[in-house]
Structure formats: C-alpha cells, structure tokens
Design brief:
globular; about 30% strand; 2 domains; about 260 residues; Alpha-Beta Plaits
Length: about 260
C-alpha cells in the first residue's frame, strides 16, 4: 500500500513570504519542496495543514506528501531537510500515514496563539513574535467578547472579503482563551484560539476586534453585531502577522500507521 509521509515543522516566518509556494518568493512550501526534490531526486508536492500568511510563524505546522519509496530513514530525512531548508525552518518529526491521509483535510483541529505586549515599554525578546500596543487592556471585557465567538458561526465578517466570495464561511470555534503570561521575562497577553478550520486572516481579524474591546473602544456585545453583519468592514483591524503562531494541528489517533 502506498503511504503518506507526514512532517511536523516549526518556522520563524519573519523573512518568509508565507507558507504557499509563490513564483520568485521565499516560502515554506517552496523551500521544503526544493529540499525534498534534492533528497529524493524527483519532484515532490507537499500539502500543508494551514496556509499561513507572510510573517506568520509556526510551532506545529504539519505537511504531507506521497511516499516515493526513495526516502531515507526518519532521522536521516530530518537531518537532511533541516540542513537544506533551514535555519528558520526546522522539521521536528516524521510519521507515516495511509495514502488517504492529507495534512489539510484529515485535520480535526487547529490551534493558533497570538501574543500582545501591552504598556509603554517595548519588548526585546518578543519583538518579532508579538504586537506591541501601548494601551492597557480589560481582559474581562475581552473574555466576554470572545465568548460570543465560541461555537458554530458564520465568520464572514472575520475574513478577507475577496476570499469569501461564493464560499461557505461557517466555522466552529472550540475555544477562545485570553490570559496574561510572562515569556522570556517579558509580560504579554496570549490569545489562544482553537477551531476546526479558519478563513483567510480570520484569527488576526478576531484579535484586532478583541483589541478594540480590551481598550474600551467597544462593548463586548459589539462582537455579536459584527457576527450578524456578515461584512468585513464592520469588524476591527487585521492584527499584524508577526504576533501570530500556528501552534498545533490535531488529527484522529487512527491516522497513523
């Protein structure tokens, strides 16, 4: 039986033009496919669990491709890929799945995390991985607003308008959690969003909307109006890409060989 090879990888998206292959651009897909082509001595096309935008990072991105029969051992493949695709892309594991497996379509959940650094002092260590805002934030109000997003909703207001034309825009969010944290010795707010799938820029627009509530510019119930409007222009701004990380992608346990 033909197998599917599944890679888990992390990347710093700061200098990358996103996940998806683009002519003349440095992308995650482009680098990995070039590296695999060199290792396996044949063209390889990969499928990613999430098509992250330019500047977005990943800790647990998952990609898959059809086994060719020429693959080296798992440790050798990891070492070769990291030598050829790195240093800002790191493959951490290799697994095998049935030929029917797809990193994108077999996923049952995706978790994103967004970091905000509040207050007058700019971050140093988190500067590439967070949105620095000089405001203070009402986390209770943000949590109340976020509660309106949990469950099955039409998120047309929370995606790039052109990407939603003629497409189904309902998604299920399992949770939207907001908590203060200290990372690398710096204070931040982490917004953790888990759902079955996401629309183009959906997480970043949700964050931009919650920021307006946290700053006191909007009441938490405003989020209900945004959902009902079905209009991107009604929601908050799109939060900067560099604060966002694709954290984890979940699959059924029976996915693996």
């Amino acid at each position: 039986m033909t197998e599917t090879i599944v890679l888990t990888l992390s990347y710093d998206g700061s200098a990358l033009a996103g996940f998806a292959r683009q002519p003349g651009q440095d992308t995650v897909q482009g680098r990995l496919e070039a590296a695999l082509g060199t290792i396996l001595r044949m063209p390889v096309t990969i499928t990613g669990a999430g098509r992250t935008d330019a500047g977005v990072h990943a800790l647990g991105q998952v990609v898959s491709f059809s086994a060719t029969g020429n693959e080296p051992g798992e440790l050798s493949l990891v070492r070769s890929l990291n030598a050829l695709a790195g240093p800002d892309i790191v493959v951490s594991s290799v697994r095998s799945a049935p030929s029917t497996f797809s990193a994108r379509y077999s996923a049952v959940s995706r978790e994103y995390r967004y970091r905000i650094v509040p207050g007058p002092i700019a971050p140093v260590f988190l500067s590439r991985y967070s949105w620095w805002l000089k405001s203070s934030f009402d986390l209770a109000a943000m949590r109340e607003a976020a509660s309106h997003l949990v469950g099955e909703h039409d998120f047309r207001s929370f995606c790039v308008a052109g990407s939603a034309e003629g497409k189904r825009t309902s998604r299920f969010l399992e949770s939207v959690d907001i908590a203060p944290d200290i990372q690398m010795g710096e204070h931040c707010i982490v917004i953790r969003i888990v759902g079955n799938a996401f629309l183009h820029s959906m997480v970043r627009i949700i964050v931009g909307t919650l920021v307006e509530v946290g700053r006191g510019s909007r009441h938490p119930d405003w989020v209900l109006e945004v959902l009902a409007a079905g209009d991107r222009a009604v929601a908050g701004q799109t939060a900067p890409a560099h604060g966002l990380t694709l954290w984890h992608v979940g699959y059924p346990e029976e996915s693996w060989l």
